[in-house]
Amino acid sequence: MPAPSILILSDLHLGDRKRGIPTASMVRPLWRDVDRLVLNGDTAELHDPKCTETAEHETRALIDACAEDGVVACAIAGNHDPFISSLARLSLRDHRVLVTHGHTIHRLEPRPLVEGQIMESGDEDSMVRTHRTDAGMLQDSFERTRRLTPPPEELETPRDLIGSIGYAISRPMVLWKIIRYWRNFPVWSDRYATHLQNEAQVVLVGHSHRQGIWRVGSRIVVNTGSPTWPGRPWAVRIVDQTVSVHRIVRGGAQWSLDRNPVGVIRLKESIIRPAADGR
Description:
This protein has helices spanning 24-27, 52-69, 135-147, 161-170, 172-196; strands spanning 6-9, 36-40, 72-76, 87-92, 97-100, 120-122, 202-205, 212-216, 219-223, 234-239, 242-251, 254-257, 263-266. It is of the alpha/beta class. Strands 1, 2, 3, 10, 11, 12 and 13 form a 7-stranded mixed sheet that branches. A 6-stranded mixed sheet has the order 6-4-5-7-9-8, with helices on one face. Strand 4 (87-92) and strand 5 form a beta hairpin.
């Protein structure tokens, strides 16, 4: 039996009032022809109380649409939706692909952002059994979010180009920290994988909103960006042993994947055995 095809998205920030944020109906065409959808953190804008109601509505609509389409959805926790899932990272294709949101990569060791947060690792089996995101699990996560408030952002970023100009003038040191974070993100991602899942040939991350593909040693790091400033949204498809990276074409009421991938990675046979504890 062939391995299930998988689509990975990140940083949708559903419910946010920023320009460019999609609705559930806009992104629904993206998972056409795949078996599973991985939502790699910051799916819902649950960090801002002003956005929570819309964020919950749109996220429910997205999960309902997946159920109607027969697509298994699995959410990974981000820093803007830390209680949407207990998953901190996901191992795919026999440990050769590591998926994590990325907000703890610079700390190396994953740790909860807030008291009460659960951080687990998952794989392709747990996506269906333990960590599948359905309507019931989503409701529980929203209730936890209402009780437990995420901490403030470490580095608040500007919302648009005009804001970036003022931001650079008023807070040059913070801007320098953001640029440093962007520059080091691929290396940190590689170090994170070496520490937690050394078999990983590909690391898929989000969080920084800076889309890109980098080779660090023998490992490929892919950041899928975001619809929000300053990045662009990308998506990753995994079909059999091929990982392809696609631009998301934002065309009005419905978004689509660019047919011409910006990158294609062929997974090799894994020669490194998983750690004894199953990580």
